[in-house]
Amino acid sequence: MLVASKELLDKARAEGYAIPSPDFVDSNSVRAFAQVADELHAPLILSFAEVHLEQMSVEEAALLGRFYAERADAPVALHLDHGTRMDVIEEAIARGFTAVMIDASSADLAENIRRTREVCELAHARGVTVEAEIGHVGTETEGNPHAVSESVYTEVDSAVELVAATGVDSLAVSVGTAHGAYKGTPHINFERLGELRDALAVPLVLHGGSGSGDDNLTRCAQCGVAKVNLYTDFIVAALERVYGERPGNWVELLNTGDAAMRDVLRHYYRVLRCAG
Ligand SMILES: [Zn+2]
Question: Smallest Cα–Cα separation from 194: which of 172, 222, 218?
Answer without folding.
Answer: 222
